[in-house]
Amino acid sequence: MGTKLWHPFADMSAVQGNELVIASGEGAYVTDEAGRRYLDATAGLWYCNIGHGRRELADAAAAQIGKIAAYSTFGNFATRPTLDLAERIAELAPMDDAVVFFTSGGSDSVDTAVKIVQRYWSLQGKPNKNLIFTRNKAYHGMHMAGTSLAGIEANRTGFTSLLDSVVRVAWDDADDLISELDRLGPDRVAAFFCEPIIGAGGVFAPPPGYLEKVRSACRERGVLFVADEVISGYGRTGHWFASDRWELDPDLILSAKGLTSGYLPMGAVLVSGAVAEPFWSRGGVFRHGYTYSGHATAAAVALANLDVLAREKLVQRVLDLEPVLAMALRPLMGSELVVEVRAGVGLLAAVQLAPEAVAADVTLAPRVLAGLRERGVLTRLLADTSIQVSPAFVVTASDIALLATAIAETLAELGSPVAIPVNIGDVDLLPEQTRDDTEAGWGSNVAATDEWYQANRPPHHRD
Ligand SMILES: Cc1ncc(COP(=O)(O)O)c(C=O)c1O
């Protein structure tokens, strides 16, 4: 009997009869309908920052539904949790006088931002300043605007009426962006959309100095800087926002996922006071919004989620675990099936399978995933056939050891023996293991080395 569920990002001919039905979750683990428990190496789709199964969030949702589940926020309507959440996010936002436009998820946030920046320039009397810059490897969701912005080529091929106001530049070369900006001229370019650390494209951290350079190039030329923090927002890089980590001072921040840890769907666009000003003072009606913008129950859940992140110091925990994850994955570089291990920014990592090996044997990638699943680890492959690693923030050092060992054993089984990672299960999360990262640099093909960690220890952890 076939399924009636049309799965997203799926080849339905392969999915039929092969569904894995997840029934419950607790912390960094999930359990399927057959009762098998897995380490959820991806935290769902990069969203479950606080971990699964929190009663506190269920209670927050139930309490709000008991009062009123949702009400419109169009015009001057509001609900209390929506107002409170906007206040709370505005306080966290690393930008001056931020205001918050709520959406139903990340792709909505991207669409909303494209409309805000284009309208912003129209209100400034510059309607032709409408080009949007984006990077190769970028993922900005799957609405029509986000698909148009896609830097992962496969995600935009085959769609015939995408936005034609998009310019793509190299993901890692600030000079490429600068020369395109100068070629087209500041009167044409509205904004640069940028994931501070590329996620779905394969987990690529910015090369040293890249973000600083593109940020000031945009500022000098009057181009708005839009940080897409749908993955990195709410703690994933060990800071509330990646914009804090790299001191980006963005004009807009796009968020979703970690805002509610995925307990309910919700997104938010954080807009600096300067960009909001013309809308709030003289813009008239901004004809944009979604039925569920600021949904009361989602907002109540988001507030509870932010409470947990703060109370349990989970954002700091991500920073403490950052070197633990990088060191655990490093030995995997020894496998000839692996071309690169990328880690060293928060709880985000990727183990990229060698493209030639994947091309030579189409069964390789699925067998890697199956091998991991047999060993109790659930993950998926990113656009460049990297194994995604982005666990919940409550993951422990021994969970991380289990994950690295499962990958090592799977690669060994597939014919490429690799040293089993040392047992890091007993590593204490001492402050000495955190590091400052404003100069986050990535080594040749291994993200971080011991010397690098020593050299980059934050001042308050130096002897
Ligand atoms: C950077 C980025 N932007 C936007 C999106 C789209 O978010 P959603 O899938 O919630 O629409 C994603 C989703 O993974 C993302 O990673």
Write the layout of secondary structure elements.
Blueprint: H1 12-15, E1 22-26, E2 29-32, E3 37-40, H2 43-46, H3 55-67, H4 80-92, E4 99-103, H5 106-123, E5 131-135, H6 144-149, E6 166-169, H7 174-184, E7 189-194, H8 210-221, E8 224-228, H9 242-245, E9 252-255, E10 267-271, H10 273-282, H11 296-311, H12 314-329, E11 338-345, E12 348-353, H13 355-360, H14 364-374, E13 377-378, E14 386-389, H15 397-413, H16 450-455
Parallel strand pairs: 3-13, 5-6, 5-7, 7-8, 8-9
Antiparallel strand pairs: 1-2, 2-3, 4-10, 9-10, 11-12, 12-14
Helix pairs in contact: 3-11, 4-11, 7-8, 12-15
The structure holds pyridoxal-5'-phosphate (PLP).
The site of pyridoxal-5'-phosphate (PLP) has 14 residues, from helix 5.
Describe the protein.
Helix 4 packs across helix 11, helix 7 (174-184) runs parallel beside helix 8 (210-221) and helix 12 runs parallel beside helix 15. The protein has 463 residues and is an alpha/beta fold. The N and C termini lie far apart (65 Å). It has 2 domains: 57-311, Type I PLP-dependent aspartate aminotransferase-like (Major domain) (Aspartate Aminotransferase, domain 2), CATH 3.40.640.10; 314-461, Aspartate Aminotransferase, domain 1. The protein is globular, with a radius of gyration of 22 Å. It has 16 helices and 14 strands. Pyridoxal-5'-phosphate (PLP) binds next to helix 5.
As laid out across the biggest beta sheet, the strand order is 4-10-9-8-7-5-6
Task: Describe the main β-sheet briefly.
Answer: 7 strands, mixed
What ligand molecules are bound, each kind once?
Answer: pyridoxal-5'-phosphate
**Helix/strand/pairing category:** alpha/beta
User: Topology as H/E string?
Assistant: HEEEHHHEHEHEHEHEHEEHHHEEHHEEHH
Strand residue percentage: 5-15%
Highest CATH level, the class of the largest domain: Alpha Beta
Measured as a percent range, the helix fraction is: 25-40%
CATH superfamily of the largest domain: Type I PLP-dependent aspartate aminotransferase-like (Major domain)
The total of beta strands comes to: 14
Based on the structure given, which CATH architecture of the largest domain is correct? Answer: 3-Layer(aba) Sandwich
Oligomer: single chain
**Averaging pLDDT over every residue, what do you get?**
91
Q: How many angstroms separate the termini?
A: 65 Å
Shape: globular
